[in-house]
Amino acid sequence: MGTQELKYKAVYNWVLENINSGALKVGEKLPSENELSERFGLSRQTVRHAVDILEQQKLVLRVRGSGTYVGGNGKAERQERYMNIAVISTYVDSYIFPPVVRGIERVLSKKGYTTQIAFTGNRVSREQDILNNLIDKDIIDGLIVEPAKSALPNPNLHYYQELKERGIPILFFNSRYPELELPCVSMNDEQVGKKAVEYLIKNGHRNIGGVFKSDDGQGHLRYKGFLSGMLEAGIKVKDANVVWLDTEDFLDLDQWADYLFRRLESCTGVVCYNDEVAYVLSGLCEKRGIAIPDQLSVVSIDNSDLATLAGVKLTSFPHPMEALGRKAAENMISMIENPYFDGNYLFDSDIIERDSVKVLKQPHKEEM
């Protein structure tokens, strides 16, 4: 044992020196036992002893089936592999989810994983039930989840913390809970909101309104981009022209028709939170004899089938949908194999021009 004690220090000191110098960074994978054995001319048993000591000191973390990584302190190791990933989404019948889940399932199935799917209906009470069930059964290797009403305080954060403490990787898609330091794969909503209003400005519009969703993070980020684009163009944002609606309001937008048109009365253009809002708005305009785009130009987000089904085909920014699902699944697999993997990813989006925006010959002057 004395000989092994002397020999193992060569490996131990080499790893320690490289960590201290920054040559090996947190989350970086160590050479395999075979590689270290060859490098130092030692047996795998001696190398394994060195790694054992490093792990006991929480300087490294072994991940079964993956390897050993720098910086084990604070990262739980999930020993079991059930080959089962839970996916939680808000709506089963939304135009976003079917292609997203198709992308998720295609990637996961190729890697031998099954997919367990549940829907919250964008209700935190339903989210609580689903998370409770996942914790009780404890048979998942990872969780891909679309948060419910992500812009509001959430009573379920402690369930996510418990899953995290059990070593189960969690990846949000479309939005995230800002209180949790967990990765998210989504459209770059802030950038898209900015691009949408910039497109209207480029076409001569200055009296521009917006319709945004108040209870999810995407709505707030898209408004943030809208605000940034207006201010950079030197246009004052008029609060009266910005409409905020929540999940329940979106279930029956017709009831808000009078309110919407009263708020947008002075606008020549409007940025809509998504195609669903833009589609309903275009129908309400038709009923009231308001011509799109001659009297009101509309820019939307998602580029779903609704964008081409409206009476006037809508200019819209595409949501990545299936590509987002594939990326979420790929990142989840990487997070399972390497607990230090950064699962965050933002998709850019470029406008699809159709018929819903009018080019104004003379930009409207800003009202003082």
UniProtKB/TrEMBL annotation:
Q: Where's the HTH gntR-type domain? A: 5-73
- MF terms per GO, please? DNA-binding transcription factor activity; transcription cis-regulatory region binding
Signal peptide (residue range): none
Listed Gene3D superfamilies: 3.40.50.2300, Winged helix-like DNA-binding domain superfamily/Winged helix DNA-binding domain (1.10.10.10)
Q: Does the keyword Transcription apply?
A: yes
Keywords (A to Z) from UniProt:
DNA-binding, Transcription, Transcription regulation
* Highest taxon of the lineage: Bacteria
SMART domains listed in its UniProt record: HTH_GNTR
Q: Which Pfam families match?
A: GntR (PF00392), Peripla_BP_3 (PF13377)
PANTHER family the UniProt entry points to: ARABINOSE METABOLISM TRANSCRIPTIONAL REPRESSOR, LACI-RELATED TRANSCRIPTIONAL REPRESSOR
* Protein name as it appears in the record: HTH gntR-type domain-containing protein
Q: Which organism is it from?
A: Enterocloster bolteae (strain ATCC BAA-613 / DSM 15670 / CCUG 46953 / JCM 12243 / WAL 16351) (Clostridium bolteae)
